[in-house]
Write a structure and sequence with these properties.
By secondary structure, the protein is mostly helical. Helix content is 61%, strand content 2%.
Length: 420
Amino acid sequence: MDYALCEAAQHNMEGITRAVTFYDINCQYNKHFWVQVDQSRFLEMVPELTIIPGIGLWYVHGHQDSCYVWYASNFIEGIGQIDGEIMETLWAQLNLISPAARGMSSPHRKECLDYQMNDSNFCKMIRMKRTLCRKYKLAKNGMSESEMAFNRLDEAAPANFKTEWLAKERIAQSSRIQDPAAMDVYEINIKKAPSKKEIELRLLEDGNAHNAAPSHRSVATWISMGLAIEEAQIALLIETLETWTHSPKLTIIPLPSNLGVTSVQQAVSLQASIYNRTRRQMMQLEPGQAQLQKYKPLLREQLKISTAVGDPNARGPRNESLAWFWSVDVNLGGPNHSWNEEYRWKEEIELVQLEMEWTCNFFLWKAAKWGDQMQESLVKGLLGHACYSGRQSHMYSLLAQDAQAAFQELQSVSIDADDE
């Protein structure tokens, strides 16, 4: 592994001073890599090359929670939206011939695997136009979705917090190689909003309590008692409706597997009913535009239970965005994942556009190279070689023309969000 990395870092790397490596155990391997290079007589690494370690998204969720923000590709600047998996994506192609290759001799198996991989590489090359067009559409759609989540967070966050977060982000990105723990600023650290009891105690600083005489109770005490009675009425109404509308055949059996889900759903339903009734009463007071923008209507699809809150490092919710009420005047304590999502999608669009340009240049270069070989074959009188070289040159010219036309058309029209 050390030898392969050192040799790869010295191949066609002129002018490149920054590289990102992905390895399943990079959190441990990178700690001792430079020590191994210094102690070996056969290993040599380019001294001016900065290596940023990363772990593929398929494996990073099986590591410690701290490895997610330290090594996941979501938090590495300049690489866009990638999963960091290379060899794993080729296993499906090799599975097609693996049964037949079991009984082959070693030379035969090697030739068969080489042929299969060469065919896979050729198919990927001629389908590069379709692949890049699909990636560009996904990047545009991802950019629009992440921008909406970012704007909600940006509107709710105070200006001084945003300035502090940007400063923390710059420090973390510049210090991540020497101290990976600097990336801990990206960890979700939600500060819970004050509870109703805490607000009530804050309003009752003058010493009035619920057990005081009615004539000595403050207005805040009466309002709090009234809200408690109204919440109890809502809970009783929900329980009554569920009792009369659910038949015995549809009653949920209280098994251990659904006790937690049922209790959470009941709590969410109760709190949503309280919020909706409170908002209707607030609308009668004709609130200002700022209050209407802050306390929006609560939709049914926004009440789905999401693991992105309880376990933000879990596998799956990478591209999910939380409902608006999760970003209402909440101090996250550091840069949020929504900030990274927008930055990564911006980088992805830029990288895909560069890949489009590189693809066209590669096809044109191959066409010119085969054209030169055709001329050399004609001079030497090798008509068969000349015909084959001319056919290859014509094929790459057509690939370049087709790719250029498709890329120009794609970038000149607006991308529909539902277009796949």
